[in-house]
Amino acid sequence: MVADDRTIPHIGSAIESGHRSPAAADRLPRHVTKDRFLMPDAPSANVPDRNLALELVRVTEAAAMAGGRWVGRGDKNRADGAAVEAMRALISTVEMRGTVVIGEGEKDNAPMLFNGEQVGNGAGPEVDVAVDPIDGTTLTAKGMPNAIAVMAVSDRGSMYDPSAVFYMDKLVAGPEVADVVDIRLPAAENVRRIAKVKKERPEDVTVVMLDRPRHEALAREVRDTGARIKLISDGDVAGAISAARETTGIDLLLGIGGTPEGIITACAIKCLGGVIQGRLWPQDDDERQKAIDAGHDLDKVLTTDDLVTSDNCFFVGTGITDGELLQGVRYSRGRATTNSIVMRSKSGTVRVIESHHVLDRTAGLPRSEG
């Protein structure tokens, strides 16, 4: 993929923050990244290196630009297919020996990026890979906000296996309130605790949740505190990350969503700080028994460290449609502009990157599609 390098010092035009970075790093020249000071040692061939982050962002940029051609066109399957193909083409160039732990499905049901597929160029560190070429396919098809292309990478064997139970009851919040929230508490109590820590009223708290019939009682409980609710139709990865970041106006994510999305979110939370807690939520008796037979404790609260055991992981996302987290792809005169977030847990560095692409020079992405 060829990006317009005039925008890169990517990092020069990036917004950088690190919750574990020394304050002095914030005063570095714009062309010097904090990682240089935080990671002085030469990387091991078996450990994901900081340079991997900028390789990964090219993968999500490709998926977003391909899927973005289908925004508002009413065909979520073709949007997803385009994003998968673009992601698959670019991921093979990344210097890693990756195994897809969370992908597009099992091998027999998905032609690309299936669970267990080996990805990368065969060199570099061994890693677990989680991909969602479009988190929010319906959002993309309808031209609605908050569709993103996402990818997470961590040390091999460190990601939770989501195969037993597809859904999970989740709570996500940012670093400021991470120590006071608890998924075992009533939602109203969590709202009140957040308000107290932030020295606000419950009416000032905003909770995001998926707009599903199963959340009607939960929504009533939250509203009874006076708190506001932002209902989203899809895309709970973007919703969860928005709850963990300070600048989005979202304080808390609650409710039942996909287990794979929970693991991807956990990689982001490792980078941002904050908290994700989850409990497996079987859809029926058969799935419940399958989980029990596999040795899962359905009452156990899964923490961030349960979902991703490694402290060296990456999260990358590129906006497809505009949202609280990222701007969507812009196309004009054979060019595209993308907005991405790149995070690494080991340094705590968060970058927001704007890239400018010449489409007829960008691998696998013709000037017009469809």
From TrEMBL:
Give the InterPro entries listed for this entry. FBPase_class-2/SBPase (IPR004464)
Pathway where this protein functions: Carbohydrate biosynthesis; gluconeogenesis
Q: Which UniProt keywords apply?
A: Carbohydrate metabolism, Hydrolase, Manganese, Metal-binding
Provide the GO biological process annotations. fructose 1,6-bisphosphate metabolic process; gluconeogenesis; glycerol metabolic process
The residues that the entry says bind Mn(2+) 2 are 132, 135, 261
For this UniProt entry, what's an example GO CC term? Answer: cytosol
Q: What would be one Pfam family of this protein? A: FBPase_glpX
Q: Which reaction does it catalyse?
A: beta-D-fructose 1,6-bisphosphate + H2O = beta-D-fructose 6-phosphate + phosphate
- Which residues does the record give as substrate binding sites? 135-137, 167, 212-214, 234-236, 258
Question: At the top level of its lineage, which domain of life is listed?
Answer: Bacteria
Instruction: Using the record, list the residue span of the signal peptide; answer none if the entry has no such feature.
Output: none
- Sites binding Mn(2+) 1 sit at 80, 104
In residue numbers, the region (Disordered) covers 1-25
Q: Which cofactor does it need?
A: Mn(2+)
GO terms assigned for molecular function: fructose 1,6-bisphosphate 1-phosphatase activity; metal ion binding
Please state which protein family the record places this protein in.
Belongs to the FBPase class 2 family.
Name this polypeptide is given: Fructose-1,6-bisphosphatase
Organism the protein comes from: Knoellia flava
